[in-house]
DNA sequence: GATATAAGTGAGTAATCACTCACTTACCAA
DNA sequence: TTGGTAAGTGAGTGATTACTCACTTATATC
């Protein structure tokens, strides 16, 4: 799937499920309520575990109203998920990270800033991200879309930046760029998981200090004096 | 929840759902087939997305047979999940990692060995782990059980080992032990996720080489010459 | 070989599911 | 004010769901 294929795919799915994707649209109050309720309930119970009647009740709307706007339950899911994926993969969301890395500060501080930025970004969109991650495990079309779209539009940009930082001597040159990229992402995601699942054991300090330590480990490693 | 509370909890759930937990039991061939089919289908479609009729069909068994042995659909889920959690948190599974760390080898090699060991362990039990992780998001009792059990019985052991390695000079002493533990886990999980979701972009080399690079990043960091 | 106990099943059942349809209500432009 | 269109709904529908029960079959012990 190339970038153009992605756009085609979005249009195709949008047609198939009569999605508006929130672009041209002026949404009704009730439509907003439905989307709000759906995010809450899908995140809490998963797609299969949620019922349209429950979503309707929480939104204060007749069940039929949901089907008026989104045709099927899966149409409702995709109306939530596809714009979110498109947003994650849009240029500006990558660009804001690049901007931070280009600021006039010590490299160490820039690394902390960019990690904090991404952590906050994920935290504020946590429910939607949870839905996307979980449902991508069970809906192959979704998984494939994320794979190809994120892989083809986000990674190359980040990869380029890393190569530049390697050339500038900020990052070591004896490891491939994808390993360095994966390491940064791993440490950030690992921190978020730890904070959510084992906060008392694995994330005991203030967020600011935790991120500072993440940057420290990332740049210098965990090895002690013996390894030198 | 203390360790004794955990045992109580297991017995309580076992009573509530009539679980045998595979300890005293001689399982029938059909029971094995049911468990096999359930693992496959729960992993593929999620708990809510799976139907008992489908599980029965795949196992080559009448639907009523499932309810004969496991009383409810959730009873079947717990029969899969609870022994797996108990196993993960059992002493020997932690001990095998500690054994590796105590071998008479350079520290760098021991780190590689232990990462490889855990990666293989997760890979061979991937379906069950997937079920546990996903369903713990939606069943609070499960989440709590994992949290307290793993947190209270696995982390302290690992934490102790890390402090010892810090004292020996193999790991740096200027960061708290939980940050070092979290870093190792993050890098391993990050690698597994990358291998599963973005293999072409984020896990391009042979497993052996990837793990060697993970150990390298972990011990020495990603920072370049500028940072020295 | 008789008997007791457990394993296994076919044919249900009530409840819930996603979804439809005929209909009413709200909105807006001419 | 009117007329056309979209928003919204109450009352359904057939299909599927987890689960039950009366019953048969297999197994093990004496």
Folded structure, characterized:
The structure is a homodimer of 228-residue chains. Chain A has 228 residues and is mostly helical. Chain A folds into 2 domains: 3-83, Homeodomain-like (Arc Repressor Mutant, subunit A, Orthogonal Bundle); 85-222, Orthogonal Bundle (Tetracycline Repressor, domain 2), CATH 1.10.357. Chain A has helices spanning 3-16, 29-45, 52-59, 63-70, 73-88, 91-101, 107-124, 126-136, 140-153, 155-167, 177-197, 199-202, 207-220. In chain A, helix 7 (107-124) packs across helix 11. Chain A starts with a helix and ends in an 8-residue tail after the last helix. Chains A and B meet through helix 9, helix 10, helix 11, helix 12 and helix 13 of A and helix 9, helix 10, helix 11, helix 12 and helix 13 of B. Chain A binds a DNA duplex (30 and 30 nucleotides) through helix 4. Chains A, B: This is TetR/AcrR family transcriptional regulator. Chains A, B: Pfam families: TetR_N. Chains A, B: Residues 51-70 bind DNA.
Pick out its properties.
228 residues, DNA-binding, 13 helices, Tetracycline Repressor, domain 2, mainly alpha, homodimer, elongated
Concise summary:
The structure is a homodimer of 228-residue chains. Chain A contains 13 helices and no strands.
Topology:
Two copies of one chain form a homodimer.
Chain A: H1 3-16, H2 29-45, H3 52-59, H4 63-70, H5 73-88, H6 91-101, H7 107-124, H8 126-136, H9 140-153, H10 155-167, H11 177-197, H12 199-202, H13 207-220
Helix pairs in contact in A: 2-3, 2-5, 2-8, 3-4, 4-5, 5-8, 6-7, 7-11, 7-13, 10-11
The first copy, chain A, binds a DNA duplex (30 and 30 nucleotides) through helix 4.
């Amino acid at each position: 799937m190339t970038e153009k294929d992605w756009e085609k795919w979005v249009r195709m799915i949008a047609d198939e499920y009569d999605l508006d994707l929130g672009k041209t649209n002026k949404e009704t109050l009730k439509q907003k309520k439905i989307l709000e309720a759906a995010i809450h309930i899908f995140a809490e119970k998963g797609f299969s575990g949620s019922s349209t009647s429950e979503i309707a009740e929480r939104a204060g709307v007749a069940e039929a109203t949901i089907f008026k706007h989104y045709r099927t339950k899966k149409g409702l899911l995709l109306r939530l998920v596809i714009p979110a994926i498109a947003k994650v993969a849009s240029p500006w969301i990558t660009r804001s990270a690049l901007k931070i890395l280009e600021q006039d500060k010590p490299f160490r501080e820039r690394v902390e800033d960019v990690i904090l930025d991404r952590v906050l970004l994920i935290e504020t969109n946590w429910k939607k991200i949870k839905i996307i991650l979980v449902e991508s495990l069970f809906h192959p079309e979704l998984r494939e879309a994320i794979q190809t779209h994120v892989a083809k539009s986000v990674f190359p940009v980040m990869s380029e930046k890393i190569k530049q930082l390697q050339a500038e001597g900020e990052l070591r040159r004896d490891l491939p760029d994808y390993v360095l990229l994966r390491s940064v992402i791993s440490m950030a995601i690992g921190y978020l998981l730890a904070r959510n699942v084992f906060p008392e054991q694995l994330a005991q300090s203030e967020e600011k200090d935790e991120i500072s330590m993440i940057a420290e480990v990332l740049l210098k490693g965990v090895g002690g004096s013996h390894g030198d």
